[in-house]
Amino acid sequence: MTQSLLHQILDHANRANPYPIYEQLRKTPVHHEDGGPYVISTYYEIRSLLHDPRISSDARNLASTARDPLAEPAREESALPPGFLRLDPPEHDRLRRMTNRPFGPPHSPHRVDGMRGELHDIVSGLIDGIGDPGRIDLVEQFSYPFPVTVICRLLGVPREDEARFHTWADTLAASLDPDPDADPTERGKGAHDARMQLGMYLAGLIEERRRNPGEDMLSQLATAKGEDGAMTTMELLSTAALLLIAGHETTVNLITNGMLTLLRHPDVLQRLREDPRLAVPIVEELLRFEPPVQLVPQRTTLADIEVRGVTIPKGASLWLVLASGNRDPQRFEDPDRFDPDRRDIQHLGLGSGIHSCFGAPLARLETQFALSELARRLENPRLLEDPPPYRQNAVLRGPRHLYVSCDGIRP
């Protein structure tokens, strides 16, 4: 029996190459199966809906009859309020504005750019510690630990506590990408314990920063009293957890997908080795070609809306398949070709509209540093397994491991 397109998207057997499924999906730009979500797959429709105020990110607006296989289960054990990613205006706008003040322009224009030296040092240290060049797991040894370390430095976590943050991030990431053979009760307990420990640690760190603020982002969030008032401790905890989880998972996948793509295109890898400035257009094309977030689920219509002649009812569940829109031939010429010289590249890889990726400037810079240094320092790198084993998660798509061999590691 042929699987429905919805089941094919979710089927782990298709994770290594979902793009033929998306090509089929685009033949019906508004796809709907048996009371499930309305799936939008074409570029212009996705972009329009990302900017449409009638689309909600707040799960409380979902009709009780709507069925969504990617809906998050209620987490009664978590007392944290939803992060701004899961809120609508005006609550979303207030929290995002407050979080942005110590992170980016116009109030903190040098926050990300000022981390260049630190990013370079972290990347260099990780490559130095790789060890045996004959078998490298780039996920475990490089792309996984890198973003967690960066977020720790951004928030101002003391160096001696960074290892604890790595442990919590490992556990929470596992809860986002469940092993089908693992005990779900044990996994749930592990994720609950990690959230509680992380919350208690952050609560203590927030109180310490209120008493003795520094230059780090958490200090500025904890002591800010602007036109939007001050964040409560619970809002601060929720925001810090959002930065840790969302900022980590997407960047891991972007770096890993990026290196996999470069190893499959050795001519581009050689160009990057010779000219590190090419990292900027390479990362933009990667965000189109192999985006770390494949689709945005958990969107809800606040009114009946019409898309390509189809009426989507109020309270319906909506999936926006960003990765399909990025390969839409109506928008991009020869979309299945990886081309860092592509001139017109207004991709959907970091979203768009009010929920566009908050950490985009940092994710871009991290990936540029990561790929340019890996290209420079790994001698004759090659894949040991292609396709690599992929994670279960259909939303945050990336290899679970990326095994690479090289002839040596340059200083």
From TrEMBL:
Residues 60-90 are annotated as: Disordered. InterPro entries: Cyt_P450 (IPR001128), Cyt_P450_B (IPR002397), Cyt_P450_sf (IPR036396). Residues 69-78 have a biased composition (Basic and acidic residues). Belongs to the cytochrome P450 family. This is Cytochrome P450. It comes from Streptomyces graminofaciens.
